[in-house]
Write a structure and sequence with these properties.
The complex is a heterodimer of chains A (235) and B (219).
Chain A lengths: L8 H5 L7 E4 L9 H10 L4 E4 L10 H6 L3 E6 L8 H8 L4 E4 L2 H13 L4 E3 L13 E4 L2 E6 L4 E7 L2 E2 L5 E2 L8 H7 E8 L1 E2 L19 E4 L17
Parallel strand pairs in A: 1-2, 1-8, 2-3, 3-4, 8-11, 9-12, 11-13
Antiparallel strand pairs in A: 5-7, 6-7, 9-10
Helix pairs in contact in A: 5-6
Chain B lengths: L8 H10 L6 E4 L18 E4 L3 E5 L20 E8 L2 H9 L5 E4 L3 E3 L4 E2 L15 H7 L2 E6 L10 E2 L12 E6 L2 E6 L2 E7 L5 H8 L3 E3 L5
Parallel strand pairs in B: 1-2, 1-5, 5-8, 6-9, 8-10, 12-13
Antiparallel strand pairs in B: 2-3, 3-4, 6-7, 10-11, 11-12
Classes of the chains: A alpha/beta (235), B alpha/beta (219).
Organism (chain A): Pseudacidovorax intermedius
Protein name (chain A): 3-oxoadipate CoA-transferase alpha subunit
GO molecular function, one term (chain A): CoA-transferase activity
Chain lengths: 235, 219
């Protein structure tokens, strides 16, 4: 019998090695798998390479993982947020390596890893410093830059509903990087707020089929806060 | 003294909105371009795309109705209009990179006369670099429009012969909507689509410091 349901975050994350590349879903704070990131902090893996669109908000979630000193390198598109002070401090102190990637290349490089693509050429970034020194080619009259896949050892995903086969649905714009990251890692762990009996999820509505998912953990729903926008000044 | 007035931010947003055609799929960059959504002419159906996986994005929700699983690219709460859809990030950027977005409106630090764009980094030492979706949008949308003040606070033109800030994309900007004039960027240089009343072409050229061709019939 297939049963990907894990009893706890701790159980789902055991064995995460030092030096792992961890794909973490979420855009700003929507879809950030806070419970899994907290679990990773507790699990203790170090020298991680983290892939996320941003570089943490406030002091919770990804920012807490950075603050705990567990991350050697971050691959992201938009680290600078109004409340990304944890990353900002580490970066300015030279304590974290940054690979800045245009957001579409980030998504497509992750998707390519999941889809078995060796590399791809794409016009994004041609002629800019983010493509400096890279192999280029003119294809159909457009200058393109060679982009390599981003493979994960572990993907941490926040989904909405799942079943014991690992099928997942998402909620609104919290879906963002979840489906492509789930494809691209050797092991994918998803939190869900509901566990469905096998066969009760609408097959037309399953966004991530269970083939891409290793473990599913049910967690309580907690309200998230939007991050990254400037706080209003108090008059 | 100048006998012309700058467009206000709302007037500029309305000027951009006037050129967005019925049925267009549009991505509005964070910051000033977001204002364009408030000025779309009545009766024009425009589908707004948000890079984090939304088509048919609606306005901000009423106070108390915020849903933090439904935010825009600026991470602020938004709504979904009837007909709207959610999708994952690779699909969202396939919409941009595959040429499915009709128009994107971006802010800019500098634009060159031939449409090179610099809008992601001032290159200052110690600044935290962040590019987001700007390079994908600028290169992938069918038309990239820039919305900005023509001059810096110090009076320097943001429309330049060659960008000195780090580039976002080469020859990707088709139009510049500014507080003083609307300009087209072409391989041959700038053309003036319109300018505020009282501003002569000669004065506009003096402010920008580049030749600008007159084009009464906007394309």
């Amino acid at each position: 019998m297939i049963d990907k349901l894990a009893a706890s975050v701790e159980e789902a994350l055991q064995g995460t090695p030092d030096g792992a590349t961890v794909l973490i879903g979420g855009f700003g704070t929507a879809g950030i798998p806070d419970a899994l990131i907290d679990g990773l902090i507790a699990q203790g893996a170090r020298e991680l390479t983290v892939v996320n669109n941003n570089a943490g908000n406030g002091e919770a979630g990804l920012a807490a993982l950075l603050k705990a000193g567990r991350v050697r390198k971050i691959i992201c598109s938009f680290p600078r947020q109004a409340d990304s002070f944890v990353f900002d401090g580490l970066y300015r102190a030279g304590k974290i390596e940054l690979e800045l990637v245009p957001q579409g290349n980030l998504a497509e490089r992750i998707r390519a890893a999941g889809a078995g693509i060796g590399a791809f050429f794409c016009p994004t970034g041609y002629g800019t410093e983010l493509a400096a020194g890279r192999e280029t080619r003119v294809i159909d009259g457009r200058h393109c830059v060679l982009e390599y896949p981003i493979h994960g050892d572990l993907a941490l995903i926040k989904a909405e509903c799942g079943d014991r086969w690992g099928n997942l649905t998402y909620r609104k714009a919290a879906r963002n990087f979840g489906p492509v990251m789930a494809m691209a890692a050797k092991k994918t762990v998803a939190t869900v707020h509901e566990v469905a009996e096998l066969g009760t999820l609408d097959p037309e509505a399953i966004v991530t089929p269970g083939i891409f998912v290793s473990r599913v953990v049910k967690i309580d729903r907690t309200a998230t806060q939007a991050g990254g926008f400037k706080k209003k000044e108090v008059a | 003294m100048a006998d012309y007035q700058r467009r206000t931010k709302d007037q500029l947003a309305a000027r951009v909105a006037q050129d967005i055609f019925d049925g267009a799929v549009v991505n509005l960059g964070i910051g000033q371009p977001t204002l364009v959504a408030n000025h779309l002419p009545a009766g024009r159906e425009v589908v707004l795309h948000s890079e984090n996986g939304i088509l048919g994005m609606g306005p901000a929700p009423a106070a108390g109705a915020e849903d933090y699983d439904l935010i825009n690219a600026g991470k602020q709460p938004v709504t979904l209009l009837p007909g709207g859809a959610y999708f994952h990030h690779a699909d969202s950027f396939a919409m941009m990179r595959g040429g499915h977005i009709d128009i994107c409106v971006l802010g800019a630090f500098q634009v060159s006369a031939t449409g090179d764009l610099a809008n992601w980094s001032t290159g200052e030492p110690g600044a935290i670099p962040a590019v987001g979706g700007a390079m994908d949008l600028a290169t992938g949308a069918k038309q990239t429009w820039v919305m900005m003040d023509l001059l810096t606070k110090q009076g320097a033109s943001k429309v330049v012969a060659q960008c000195s800030y780090p580039l976002t994309g080469l020859a990707c900007v088709k139009r510049i909507y500014s507080d003083l004039a609307t300009l087209a960027c072409t391989p041959q240089g700038l053309r003036c689509i319109d300018r505020v009343p009282g501003l002569s072409l000669q004065e506009l050229e003096r402010l920008v410091g580049l030749p600008i061709a007159e084009d009464a019939a906007a394309d």
